[in-house]
Design a protein that fits this description.
Blueprint lengths: L5 E2 L12 H13 L10 E5 L5 E6 L31 H7 L10 E6 L3 H10 L3 E6 L6 H13 L2 E4 L23 E2 L2 H8 L2
The protein binds the ligand Nc1ccn([C@H]2C[C@H](O)[C@@H](COP(=O)(O)O)O2)c(=O)n1 and zinc ion (ZN).
Keywords: Hydrolase, Metal-binding, Nucleotide biosynthesis, Zinc
Pfam families: dCMP_cyt_deam_1 (PF00383)
Cofactor: Zn(2+)
Length: 196
């Protein structure tokens, strides 16, 4: 058995807390977990100038359009039987579902670079900055069009390159004992190491 452990001095401030950018991008990725799209789960998180989250969204069917009845296919004999006419993109949902009066001067954190349609909504809503994780559709005309519009409208956009590729949420962590001299030897970590 591989034994691993970590020390935590509970008298000192934690050093391994999430940065703001990690926190907001992780919020976007967590929202994406709600998506029913079998191929692409995209999340978006809108943050105001006070670093408050004012909107979260993920790609899904419009309200009232059952995600058990509308199609999730990428291809079909008829375009009407693909998802593309129906699905609301994460960015659009985050903007329309905002919990503030407006999203002026906000930043949107999004897993995938916005398409041209979302770029228009982002610009019109007053969002000033786009932070994205992936630009995997960079070669598509929709992405190029979005970039042209962002450039013309003076919207700042930049790719977030994470320091860690994973953030683990462990629901059991809240029950770990934290004593002043504690060295945790946590079962899950041991199991993970054994599986390596
Ligand atoms: N910035 C984006 C890009 C895409 N989406 C959504 C729209 C679809 O549900 C899915 C793309 O489907 P695919 O062609 O990859 O099968 O992702 C979004 O919400 N935001
Ligand atoms: Zn879009």
């Amino acid at each position: 058995m591989v034994k691993t452990f970590f020390h935590r001095d509970i008298n000192k401030k934690r050093e391994d807390f999430l940065s703001w950018t990690e926190y907001f991008m992780a919020t976007a990725f967590l929202a994406a977990k709600r998506s029913k799209d079998p191929c692409s789960q995209v999340g978006a998180c809108i943050v105001n100038e006070d670093k408050k989250i004012v909107g979260v969204g993920y790609n899904g069917m419009p309200t009232g359009c059952s995600d058990d009845q509308f199609p999730w296919s990428k291809t079909a004999e008829s375009e009407l039987d693909t998802k593309y006419f129906y699905v609301c993109h994460a960015e659009m949902n985050a903007i329309v579902n905002r919990n503030s009066a407006d999203v002026k001067n906000c930043t949107i954190y999004v897993a995938l670079f916005p398409c041209n349609e979302c770029a228009k909504i982002i610009i019109q809503s007053g969002i000033r900055e786009v932070v994205y994780m992936s630009d995997k559709h960079a070669e598509k005309a929709a992405t190029e069009a979005a970039k042209r519009m962002f450039d013309a409208a003076g919207i700042k956009y930049w790719q977030y390159i994470p320091q860690n590729s994973k953030i683990v949420i462990d629901f059991t962590e809240i029950n770990w004992s934290k004593q002043p001299t504690d060295v945790h030897l946590h079962e899950n970590i041991i199991k993970e190491m054994e599986n390596l």
